[in-house]
Structures are given as structure tokens and as C-alpha cells.
């Protein structure tokens, strides 16, 4: 009996001890020594750059280590939490908000990732039930086979850890496994999911981003799992099942088949009545939205966004889904009126009908929603539709509304005062509409507002401090491109600490905004085009430890800058900044300093040994006062793609090290004083699109390797140099060429007939643009001479096509092959020694806008095909030996006589009329005394002819035969013409 009693009390003691141990988080039980050593071996093979596992030290209790959880009674390691989890926004934001979240915080996040190898010592943790290695970076390592032998595992999360190769099928041996997450890795194509059927206890399965395009058994393998509750197969290349089967998911509540290639909604879904959440977004499904969803009365989440459903789809079945809380119908082809059935969803909290063709007044939609979801609605996205009308005061009745997207519509009128009655509002986006009037002061009452975007409207008036009085949580304020004036009291201290502020095109100046000095968390600032004058205050440069984007361009800022702030993008274009170039910092990617008054050498920014700009992609210092030579230290600038040093006072030769810029696509050294030959190292620019070396003193012949090596060139501008010899035939191999300007050089020889090979001159392309972010773009511009004047092309540069060979010493005839360039817009062959007739097929170039063949030795008649040039608005055929009648055509008669002067032509618009026998007669104002004065008029003609001959041989002829005279004369003439053009344009002629 005593033995029984002792046994009972002993058993009772164990139970009590177990309970106390389990409940006492401060248990003194130490981890098992063998398991501690196993963990230390595991750590040895890991790469821990941020020292996350610093607590994993020999001799310490492993149960106290970061990420390690032990059984408080036995001391066995039961869980390893080594996943790296980041916070994310509460809702999925529109594309224009995505860039905002790319900040310095991500750098720290990436550094915290574990890497290296996974040591098999984990097998020694016999009691391990939970293993989380998610959100790390194992650099394409395969999932170790030994994990399939860890039979105690209940939870395994290896998602977003950069594993690759094949999924080990022995994971199917983990019969106790309840949660398996392998999503968003880089596994090879999986041809079967049969191994999943062995996971009889599985409740959660995530294989997102695994290629299951050939695993046609995925449906059969998963619906047999009796306990499966959640199935996530997003972005798995799933197609429609060619042989539909009846399924029997008995417990499935969450189904995610988004981002696949399902051309229609799988019908078997409608038989799974237990479903609570369905995500079929981003599939491209077509046809009508099926009404089978009405059978799923338990649905709370339904996302059908980004599909291609028919606009005639009816949504009456929505009325049966009384429990629906989230409805995603963004970009599904809805047109016409807002679906009335949505207004009957009394449980709705999140609604997305963005990117459709809903054409209705916004007030009608707000009214229909207020009937049932007035007190529940938390997120409303109607962006990118065709909404019109005014925002109603009724908007202020949605007391729980936290996210409101109305951007990219045609909503007009004011923002209603009632907006201040939305106490839960966190995000308001009304950008890209036609809102006008002033902002209501009630905006300042939104205590929870974090993101405010009112940019690209027609808002006007003055803002006061009251507009921001209670916005203590404001993090993002985008309001660019309005007509708003904001000049608060200089002593004003804003209540918010923003991370992103964009006020482009506001009236802020002339004083630099003092209130910015209190924004210590800024990573993004745009106050360009804001009429700000004066010196940038010293406190500004220490405002933020890390700018993501800084734009102060197009103001009137003066003074010097000794160094730049730490930033990814710095834009100081179009100011009055002086002094030497500022010292740059590492991690800089885009630097814009053009159109200022910076002077001195480039060496300070390029060759400073303490600064390595290895990430710099764009360097734009055009139109400053830089002098001295271009430094020869370009070897460490491997990432540079755009280099713009045009319109400065740079001298010397083009440095050979410039050829080390392997990825450069845009190079402008034009309008400087560079001399010497083009270095052969530039032939390494295999990605080059725009090469501008114009307005220098470069010599030698045009390098043949330009055609052989720079095959991607679209613009080649060598204008106004001293290039000699002939045009190499290799230029004809530049099949992508749109603009070729070799004007004002000493080039001789004939025009290559192979110019007809420039096939891509007949294909218009869009302007080349760098998109720094969703709202700010840098266009690759170029100065091109067309229609007798020099213009800057940026956004339309890719739409320009032209050839300019003017003012050289080219001889021979105009090749008829040029007529094959049927999409050419501008052709200038003036100021050469060309002979022969104008080719008849020039008239085939029906898109020609500018044609200049003046100052040559052409003879014969103007081809009749010229009357087909309907787009021609600039024509110059003067000073040739052309004869005959000017062809009839609306365009040809619209030009003044100076387009034809210096020839022997007749017919309108000149004053000589054509007779039937080929003679010409001058049109006079009367003929009554013609006979009486005939001898006097003839003598007048004789004197004119003599004067012309004397003038020709005394002045004009040397221009033809003395190259230097002709070059200087035409350059001066063009300069005077430009001045006259600017003068007449200024006075409005």
C-alpha cells in the first residue's frame, strides 16, 4: 500500500512539476549539451553579416539564444525562429506609391539576411518541431535532403530564402507536418506533386512561384489532403486543367491561384462550399465573370483583379454574398455605370474597382455605397476610371474609411470640407484629376492621415499653417503641379515629420522654406520649379542622413556648394550655382548639374581618390563654365550610362580612358574646344545610342569603326569640326540610325550610295527616357539643326529623322538611292559642290519637312514629283543652275521667292512667267510705254548682268573654291540668321 501511495505521490509530483515548469517562463532548465554543439556547428556554416546570432556563444545556455526556443521541462530545442520578417503596408497600394517604399531601410534589411550553408547537424535536434529560415539569402543553394528525415517537424518555412534546384521529394515523409511554406524561391520546374499526398496532417501549403506548368497532377495531389485548410499556388504557371475532375476539398477555406495563366475561372471552385477566401487575380481570364460564385455564400474575400473579362459581365450574383468583406475587381473590363449589386454588400470593408472604364459621376457612386456599407467601408479604390462630377459632402459620412484612392479620373470642383470628418483616414490619393479651388482647412483635422497625394490637379490659392494643424502622423505629402502658394511664418514648426515631400511647381519662394529644417526623416524631397532664390542654407545639407531623391532644379539658387548630400539622386539643374563642382558621395546614381555657372576643372568630382562613384549611372553637367581638359581617370566608372559634358569650355584631347565606360549609351561632348582625333578606344561603346561630338575642333577622318562597332547608334552628330577625307561606307551599317549630322566639316568625295541601307530611318520610335521613379524622368536630349536653325530635342528626339551633310566639299551627283529613305523628315545637302540633276525619286520622300539643296552646282528642272511633298514646310533650292518651270503644287507655291533665287526658274512664286517656247518674261506693272523704254530697260539688264558677274567672281566664286572662306562665311551667315529668327520670334512676327 505504501508503495502504491509513494508511486501516486511521485506521479502527482511529476505532473505538478511539469505544470509549474510549463507555466514558469524563467525556468532554470539548461539546454542539452549535444544540441548546443549541434547549433554551434550550424552557426559555423552560416554567413551572418549583421551579427544577428551574436548571442550564440560557447558556454552559454542555448535556450537563451536569439531565435532558439526550448521545452521548459526537458530542455530540448523545439523551435528555431531564424526567419527575417519585414513590415509591409496595410493595403496593396497603386504602382505610383511603390517607389516610396524603396528606401535606406531596405539596405539594412538585406544586410540582416543569413546566408552560407545549412549544416546537417540540425538532424541531432531530435525534438525540433518548428523550423523557420524564411526571408534569408542562401544564394541558390538546394534544400538539403536531410530535412526530409526530421520526422518531428510540424512547421517548416523556407520561403523567400533564395533556394533553387529541385524540391526534395522526401519532404513527403514528414507525416506530422502541418505547415509547409516553400514559396517564392527559384526552384527548377516541378513535373509532379505526387510527393505532397504523403503529408496527411498538412493544413497549410504554399508553393508560390514554383513552376508547376507540367505538374498536371497538382489538383489530384492536393485535394486528397484531408486536413488542408489553406492552399497557395500563386505564380506557378498553372494552365487550365485539360481534364476537369470532381474534387472534394473537405476543409479548404483559403485558395490562392493568382498570377497564373488560367484563361477562365476553374469550375471546380464552385463546388468547394467551405471556401472563405479566393484570389484569382492576374490570370488573364476571359469571357463573362461566372455567376457560380453565388454558391459560395461563406466567401469573405474575393479578388478577380487584372483579368480580361467581358465588359458585358453581370454582377447580380454579388447580392448572394452577404458575408463578403473584400472585393477586388480592378482592371476586369467593367464599363459604363458602377455595378449596382456592389451597393448591396452590407459587410463590405475593402472595395477595388480601379483601372476600369466606369463612366459616371463620382457622387452617384458614393451615394450607392453609403446605403449599406457606410459604417463598415475601410478601403475604397476607384482610381483610373472615367469618373466625372464633384466629390459630394456625403463622403464625410464614412467614419471607418482609412484608404481612399480616386486618382486618374476627371473629377472636378473642390475637395469637400467634409473630408475633415473622416477620423480614420490614413491615405488620401486624389492625384491626376481636375480638382480646383483651394484646399479646405479641414484637411488639417485628419489626425491619422499618413499619405496625402493631391498632385497634378488645378488646385490654387494660399495654404496656411492651419491646413496642417493636426497632421502629426503625415509621412508622405505629394502635391506637385498645382497652383498653390505656401509661405508660412518663418518661425512655423510643422507638426509632422515627413519622409517624402513633393511640391514641384508650387509658389514657395523667394525665400528658401525654413520649415524644412524640422523634417529630420526626409528621404525624398522635390521643391523644383518653386521660385526659390538665394543661397541654400547650411542646415539643409545636414537635414537627412540619407536622401533617396533630392530635386531643387529650375529655381534661382545662387552660391557655391562644397559637397553633395548622401543621396541616390541629386538634381540641381537650371539654377545660378557658382564655384567649383561639389564633391560627390558614394552610392550616388543620378547627378544633374546642367545649366548652372559651375566653373573650374572636372577633376574634383571625377578623380578624387577619396570618392568612388562606382554606382553613378547619369552624370549631366551640360551648359556650365567648366574649363581645362577632360581628366583621364574614367576606369572606375563602370556603371556610367549617360555622360553629358556639352556646352562648356573644355579643351584638350578626348581621353583614351573614356573608352572604359563599357555600358554608356549617351555621350555628349559637343560645343567645347576639344581637338585632335577621336580615340580608337571609343569603339568599345557597343551600347551607344547617342554620340554628340559637334562644335569642336576635332580633326582626322571620320573613323570607320563607328559603323563597324557602334551598331546601336541612333544619333551621330559630328557637326562643325575639321573632319576631312570622305564619308566611310561603314556608316551605312548603322541600321538603327535616325539622325546623321556631318555638316560644316572638310569632308570631300561623293555621297555614299549605300545610304539607302539605313532602313531604320523609316521607323519612328519614342524618345529615350530614364525613369528615375514613377514621376520623374530624364530625357536624353540633343541639339539638332533642322530648317536652318538649331533646336533642342528631348521628349521628341526619337521621333526625329534627318541627314545633314551641308557645307562640306562633297562632289558628284545626288545618289538616287536617297529617295528610298521614304520616312526621312529632313535632308540638307547645301553648300557643297554637287552636280547633275535632282533625282526624280526625291519626291517619294513624302514625309520630308525640310529640304535644302542650295549653294551647289545642280542643273536641270525641279522634278515634278516635288508636288507630292505635302509635309514640306522648309525648302531651299537657291543658287544652283536649275531651269524650267516650278512644278505646280500647293506646297511649292507657298514658299517665297528666296527659296528659288539664283536659278533660271519660272512660274509662281517668282516673277518670271514661262512661255510655250521655253523663254521667260519678267512680269511688269504696265506695258503702255514698253516700246518707248525698251532700249533703256535692256541697258539696265546689261548693267545688272555685269554687276552680277563682277560680284560673282569677286565674292561668290572664292566661296566655292576656297574652303576656309566658305566655311567662315556660311557659319557667320547662319549665326546672323539665328539672331534674326530669335528677333522676329520675340516680337511675334
TrEMBL record:
One of its GO terms (cellular component) is plasma membrane. Residues 1-25 form the signal peptide. It is a single-pass type I membrane protein. The keyword Transmembrane applies. InterPro entries: Leu-rich_rpt, Leu-rich_rpt_typical-subtyp, LRR_dom_sf, LRR_N_plant-typ, LRR_R13L4/SHOC2-like, RLP23-like. It holds the Pfam family LRR_14. Keywords: Cell membrane, Glycoprotein, Leucine-rich repeat, Membrane, Receptor, Repeat, Signal, Transmembrane, Transmembrane helix. The chain crosses the membrane at residues 939-962. Residues 33-71 form the Leucine-rich repeat-containing N-terminal plant-type domain. Residues 374-529 form the Disease resistance R13L4/SHOC-2-like LRR domain. The keyword Repeat applies. It is found in: Cell membrane. Its main location: membrane. PANTHER family: LRR RECEPTOR-LIKE KINASE, LRR RECEPTOR-LIKE SERINE_THREONINE-PROTEIN KINASE FLS2. Belongs to the RLP family. This is LRR receptor-like serine/threonine-protein kinase GSO2. It comes from Durio zibethinus. The gene is LOC111296310.
Amino acid at each position: 500500500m505504501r508503495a502504491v501511495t509513494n508511486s501516486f505521490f511521485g506521479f502527482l509530483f511529476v505532473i505538478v512539476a511539469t505544470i509549474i515548469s510549463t507555466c514558469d517562463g524563467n525556468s532554470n532548465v539548461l539546454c542539452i549539451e549535444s544540441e548546443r554543439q549541434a547549433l554551434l556547428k550550424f552557426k559555423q556554416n552560416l554567413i551572418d553579416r549583421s551579427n544577428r546570432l551574436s548571442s550564440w556563444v560557447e558556454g552559454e545556455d542555448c535556450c537563451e539564444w536569439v531565435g532558439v526556443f526550448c521545452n521548459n521541462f526537458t530542455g530540448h530545442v523545439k523551435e528555431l525562429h531564424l526567419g527575417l520578417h519585414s513590415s509591409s503596408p496595410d493595403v496593396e497600394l497603386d504602382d505610383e506609391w511603390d517607389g516610396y517604399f524603396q528606401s535606406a531601410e531596405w539596405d539594412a534589411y538585406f544586410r540582416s539576411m543569413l546566408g552560407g550553408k545549412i549544416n546537417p547537424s540540425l538532424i541531432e535536434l531530435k525534438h525540433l518541431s518548428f523550423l523557420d529560415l524564411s526571408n534569408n539569402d542562401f544564394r541558390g543553394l538546394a534544400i538539403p535532403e536531410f530535412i526530409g528525415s526530421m520526422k518531428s517537424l510540424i512547421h517548416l518555412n523556407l520561403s523567400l530564402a533564395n533556394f533553387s534546384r529541385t524540391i526534395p521529394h522526401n519532404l513527403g515523409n514528414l507525416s506530422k507536418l502541418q505547415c509547409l511554406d516553400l514559396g517564392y524561391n527559384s526552384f527548377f520546374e516541378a513535373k509532379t506533386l505526387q510527393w505532397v499526398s504523403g503529408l496527411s496532417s498538412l493544413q497549410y501549403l504554399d508553393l508560390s512561384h514554383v513552376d508547376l506548368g507540367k505538374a498536371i497532377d497538382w489538383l489530384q495531389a492536393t485535394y486528397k489532403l484531408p486536413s488542408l485548410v489553406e492552399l497557395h499556388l500563386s505564380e506557378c504557371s498553372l494552365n487550365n486543367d485539360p481534364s476537369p475532375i470532381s474534387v472534394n476539398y473537405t476543409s479548404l477555406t483559403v485558395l490562392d491561384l493568382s498570377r497564373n495563366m488560367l484563361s477562365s475561372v476553374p469550375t471546380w471552385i464552385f463546388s468547394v462550399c467551405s471556401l472563405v477566401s479566393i484570389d484569382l487575380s492576374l490570370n488573364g481570364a476571359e469571357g463573362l465573370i461566372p455567376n457560380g460564385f453565388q454558391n459560395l455564400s461563406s466567401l469573405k474575400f474575393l479578388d478577380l483583379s487584372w483579368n480580361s473579362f467581358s465588359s458585358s459581365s453581370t454582377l447580380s450574383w454579388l447580392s448572394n454574398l452577404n458575408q463578403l468583406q473584400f472585393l477586388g475587381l480592378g482592371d476586369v473590363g467593367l464599363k459604363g455605370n458602377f455595378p449596382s449589386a456592389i451597393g448591396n454588400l452590407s459587410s463590405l470593408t475593402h472595395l477595388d474597382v480601379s483601372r476600369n472604364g466606369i463612366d459616371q459621376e463620382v457622387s452617384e457612386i458614393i451615394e450607392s455605397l453609403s446605403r449599406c456599407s457606410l459604417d463598415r467601408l475601410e478601403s475604397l479604390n476607384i482610381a483610373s476610371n472615367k469618373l466625372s462630377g464633384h466629390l459630394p459632402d456625403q463622403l464625410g459620412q464614412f467614419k471607418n474609411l482609412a484608404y481612399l484612392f480616386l486618382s486618374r479620373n476627371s473629377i472636378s470642383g473642390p475637395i469637400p470640407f467634409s473630408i475633415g470628418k473622416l477620423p480614420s483616414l490614413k491615405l488620401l490619393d486624389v492625384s491626376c484629376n481636375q480638382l480646383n479651388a483651394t484646399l479646405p482647412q479641414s484637411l488639417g483635422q485628419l489626425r491619422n492621415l499618413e499619405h496625402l497625394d493631391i498632385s497634378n490637379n488645378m488646385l490654387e490659392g494660399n495654404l496656411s499653417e492651419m491646413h496642417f494643424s493636426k497632421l502629426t502622423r503625415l509621412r508622405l505629402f505629394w502635391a506637385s503641379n498645382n497652383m498653390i502658394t505656401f509661405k508660412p511664418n518663418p518661425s512655423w514648426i510643422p507638426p509632422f515629420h515627413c519622409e517624402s515631400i513633393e511640391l514641384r511647381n508650387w509658389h514657395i519662394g523667394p525665400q528658401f522654406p525654413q520649415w524644412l529644417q524640422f523634417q529630420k526623416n526626409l528621404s525624398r524631397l522635390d521643391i523644383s520649379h518653386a521660385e526659390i532664390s538665394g543661397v541654400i542654407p547650411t542646415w539643409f545639407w545636414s537635414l537627412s542622413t540619407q536622401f533617396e531623391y533630392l530635386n531643387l532644379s529650375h529655381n534661382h539658387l545662387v552660391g557655391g556648394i562644397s559637397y553633395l548630400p548622401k543621396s541616390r539622386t541629386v538634381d540641381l539643374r537650371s539654377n545660378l550655382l557658382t564655384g567649383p563642382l561639389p564633391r560627390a558621395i558614394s552610392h550616388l546614381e543620378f547627378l544633374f548639374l546642367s545649366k548652372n555657372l559651375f566653373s573650374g576643372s572636372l577633376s574634383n568630382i571625377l578623380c578624387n581618390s577619396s570618392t568612388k562613384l562606382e554606382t553613378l549611372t547619369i552624370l549631366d553637367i551640360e551648359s556650365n563654365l567648366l574649363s581645362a581638359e577632360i581628366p583621364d581617370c574614367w576606369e572606375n566608372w563602370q556603371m556610367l550610362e549617360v555622360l553629358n559634358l556639352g556646352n562648356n569650355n573644355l579643351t584638350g584631347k578626348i581621353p583614351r580612358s573614356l573608352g572604359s565606360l563599357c555600358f554608356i549609351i549617351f555621350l555628349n561632348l559637343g560645343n567645347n574646344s576639344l581637338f585632335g582625333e577621336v580615340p580608337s578606344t571609343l569603339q568599345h561603346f557597343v551600347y551607344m545610342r547617342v554620340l554628340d561630338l559637334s562644335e569642336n575642333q576635332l580633326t582626322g577622318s571620320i573613323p570607320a569603326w563607328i559603323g563597324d562597332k557602334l551598331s546601336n547608334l541612333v544619333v551621330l552628330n559630328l557637326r562643325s569640326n575639321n573632319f576631312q577625307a570622305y564619308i566611310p561606307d561603314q556608316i551605312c551599317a548603322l541600321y538603327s540610325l535616325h539622325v546623321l549630322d556631318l555638316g560644316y566639316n572638310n569632308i570631300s568625295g561623293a555621297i555614299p550610295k549605300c545610304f539607302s541601307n539605313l532602313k531604320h530611318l523609316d521607323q519612328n520610335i519614342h524618345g529615350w527616357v530614364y525613369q528615375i521613379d514613377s514621376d520623374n524622368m530624364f530625357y536624353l536630349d540633343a541639339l539638332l539643326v533642322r530648317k536652318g536653325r538649331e533646336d533642342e530635342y528631348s521628349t521628341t528626339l526619337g521621333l526625329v529623322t534627318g541627314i545633314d551633310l551641308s557645307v562640306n566639299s562633297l562632289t558628284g551627283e545626288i545618289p538616287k538611292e536617297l529617295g528610298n529613305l521614304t520616312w526621312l523628315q529632313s535632308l540638307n545637302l547645301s553648300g557643297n559642290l554637287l552636280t547633275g540633276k535632282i533625282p526624280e525619286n526625291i519626291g517619294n520622300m513624302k514625309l520630308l519637312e525640310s529640304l535644302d539643296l542650295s549653294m551647289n552646282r545642280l542643273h536641270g528642272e525641279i522634278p515634278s514629283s516635288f508636288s507630292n511633298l505635302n509635309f514640306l514646310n522648309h525648302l531651299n533650292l537657291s543658287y544652283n543652275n536649275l531651269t524650267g518651270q516650278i512644278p505646280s503644287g500647293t506646297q511649292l507655291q507657298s514658299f517665297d521667292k528666296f527659296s528659288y533665287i539664283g536659278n533660271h526658274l519660272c512660274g509662281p512664286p517668282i516673277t518670271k512667267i514661262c512661255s510655250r517656247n521655253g523663254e521667260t518674261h519678267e512680269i511688269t506693272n504696265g506695258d503702255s510705254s514698253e516700246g518707248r523704254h525698251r532700249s533703256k530697260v535692256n541697258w539696265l539688264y546689261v548693267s545688272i548682268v555685269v554687276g552680277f558677274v563682277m560680284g560673282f567672281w569677286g565674292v561668290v566664286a572664292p566661296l566655292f573654291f576656297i574652303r576656309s572662306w566658305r566655311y567662315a562665311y556660311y557659319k557667320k551667315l547662319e549665326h546672323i540668321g539665328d539672331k534674326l529668327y530669335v528677333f522676329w520670334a520675340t516680337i511675334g512676327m
